[in-house]
């Protein structure tokens, strides 16, 4: 396997964070947002961005008071690491039977170290998947990422029926609790009534038992609206 240096791992984590925070529109990302996302002091974030922008092949476009965007080279590298991460998650879940709430942390450790040949073998073994176990798109070798129009469960204000598009992979404990209720990509979810201060009254499937989900947990679930029957 190819092992990156600790500095390279740090660079990869910055690029991934900028990619995630910028979203599909590739919006500029603030120092504050990166500082919170990476749990790094703002001064350290600024120092790293200046280095990435001053590289022979700049990985970011950085302006002191205007935030940061990925350069073409930076976006390519970020998508490569995201592809590694999501392929590893899928391999751990499908082939090695890892619990869903454990695959993210394991993939975070491994994503920096696999060779391109190893990546190709994983993809082939899995049948070249396009979605990881959490419902997130796996970037193609060319850097293409499928985008589906979805909304956060936390933003739903009325009763309705939805398909779960994806769930966040960043909080293993929360993911485990949601999985126990049947909250998983592809499942049919019904919001039974408008949300209250306590959270969301939900059920899974056509005749699932009602349960309550907190607003914090609802921030971790993305949905696609289903047409009315």
Give a quick rundown of the structure:
This protein has helices spanning 6-22, 31-38, 42-54, 72-94, 103-110, 116-125, 172-180, 215-218; strands at residues 60-63, 67-70, 151-152, 160-167, 188-191, 200-204, 211-213, 221-225.
Task: Write up what this structure looks like.
Helix 4 packs across helix 5 (103-110). Helix content is 40%, strand content 15%. It has eight helices and eight strands. The protein has two domains: 1-147, Winged helix-like DNA-binding domain superfamily/Winged helix DNA-binding domain (Arc Repressor Mutant, subunit A), CATH 1.10.10; 151-225, SH3 type barrels (Roll), CATH 2.30.30. The mean pLDDT is 93. It is of the alpha+beta class and 229 residues long.
Rg, rounded, reads 19 Å
CATH C-level class of the largest domain is Mainly Alpha
* Count of DSSP-assigned helices: 8
Shape: globular
CATH homologous superfamily caption of the largest domain: Winged helix-like DNA-binding domain superfamily/Winged helix DNA-binding domain
Helix/strand order, N-terminal first: HHHEEHHHEEHEEEHE
Work out the number of β strands: 8
Q: How is the main sheet built? A: 6 strands, antiparallel
Q: Say what the CATH topology of the largest domain is.
A: Arc Repressor Mutant, subunit A
Mean pLDDT across every amino acid position: 93
The N- to C-terminal Cα distance equals: 51 Å
Secondary structural class: alpha+beta
Low-confidence stretches: none
**What portion of residues is helical?**
40-55%
Report the CATH architecture of the largest domain.
Orthogonal Bundle
Number of domains: 2
Strand order of the largest sheet: 3-8-4-5-6-7
Strand content: 15-25%
